[in-house]
Amino acid sequence: MSHNILVKRQFGHRARLALSPAGVRAADDQAHAARTMWNLLHAWWRMMPKEKRTLANVDAAIRQARQDIDFLAVLPAQAAQAVLKTYFQAWKNCWDGRADAPNFKGRPRTVMSVDIPQGLDLNITRVHRRWGMVNIPKVGRVRFRWTQDLPVGKRAGAENRITGARLVKDALGWHIAFRVQTLEVKPDPHQGPDVGIDVGVIVPIALSDGETYEHGEWLTGKEQARLLHLEQRAAQRKRHRRPGECTSRRLHRTYDQIAGLRAKAKRRALDWQHQTTTAIARTYGTVVVEALTITNMVKSARGTIEEPGKSVAQKSGLNRSISQEAWGRTVTMLTYKTAHLGGTLVKVPAPGTSRRCSACGFTTPGSRESQAVFVCRSPGCGWSGNADHNAARNVLHLYRMGLALVPAAGRAVVRRAKRVKPAAAR
Length: 426
Fold this sequence. Notes:
Blueprint: E1 6-18, H1 21-47, H2 55-68, H3 77-95, E2 113-116, E3 125-126, E4 131-136, E5 140-145, E6 161-170, E7 173-185, E8 194-199, E9 205-207, E10 212-213, H4 221-239, H5 249-283, E11 286-290, H6 294-297, H7 312-325, H8 327-340, E12 344-348, E13 373-375, E14 384-386, H9 387-400, E15 406-407
Helix pairs in contact: 1-3, 4-5, 5-8
C-alpha cells in the first residue's frame, strides 16, 4: 500500500533574524562580497578561452582573488564556493534550455543574499517557545523567530536534518531560510473531484464549480495615501539633486519607507495566496489550469516611432494589474501543495477558453458581452452565465478531452526550446 512508502522531501523554512547593528553591517558586507564574487566570476568566464574554463582554474582564481582583494575576505570560504556552484549551475540551466545565460548582477536590482551550505555549521538551539539561536559564519550567534519546528537535537537524523541555509534581506531586514530534508509518508491518491481554474484581474480565481476567491486592496486607504505621498516626496527630492551628487540620507530614508509599505502589501498578498491554494489543494484531487505565457501578456503596447501603439496607458495599467496578481506564483503553490496532498496539477492550452461557450462548445463573436457576462450567440444554444465561470468550465473540459499539456505533479520543469549555446558559453 502507498501509505507504507517513505519519500524524501526538501522544503524551506524562513525565519526573521534579530541582528545587532554590527551584525547587520557584517551581513551586508558579506552579501556585497558575494555579488562582487559573482561578477568577477562572470568577467573571468567571458575573458578565458573555452579550454581553460575548468573548475580547477576557476577555484584557483577565486582563492587568488580572496588574497588580493581584502573586501572579498569578509565572505566565508564555503559561501564563496557556493557562489561558484551557483554560477556553474546557471550555465547548465542555460545549456539545457531552462533559463537564459547568466549576466552581471547590478547592485540596485539584486537581492542581497549569502549562502551557508553546511547545515552542521549552523548549530541551531531552541531558547524558548518563540526564539531560537543559530550560528552564522563571521557574524556569530544570532537569535531568530521560532515559528516552525525544525529537526534539531534529538529530532535530527540521517534522513531528517537541516542541510544548509541562506541569508536573505528584504524591506523588513535580514531573514534566514533553512533547507530542510525530511522523510515523510507518501500520500495516498487524493479522492477529491476535478476542478478547472480561470485566473483574472477582476476575479482573481474562479473555479469550474462556481466557487470564486477574491480579495480587496492589499493596502488600506491611509496606507495608499501615505505611499503616494512618499513617492511624490522621493521624486521631488530626486529632481532637486544636482548631477553627480550622492543620494542624501533623507532620500534613502524615504526609499526605505516606500519599500516597507510595498513589502507589507506583498506579505498580505502571499498570505492570501497561501490560504487560497491550500484550501483548493485540500478540496480537489485534480486541479486544471491554463498554460499562460505571462511574459508575453505583460509586454508594452508602446510600439515604435514609425508605428506607435494604441491605448498605451490602459495597457500599462493592465500589465501592472496582471503582475500584482502573480498568477505564476499561484500555480507554483498549487503545484507543490497538490503533490504533497496526493493530488495532481495539469496545464491545458489557454487560447479560446474565455470566448468559447462551455455548453455547446462553439465560439461565436459577441458572446462575451462584458467582463462578467457571457451569453452564447450560437443558434440553438443561448446559454448565459458568469464569464469567468464559463472559462473555468472550458479549462476543465479540455483536460477531460485529453488535451493536457504538462502534467505538473511535483515540481515539474517546463523546458524551453533547444537553442544554440551563447557564444560566451562555448
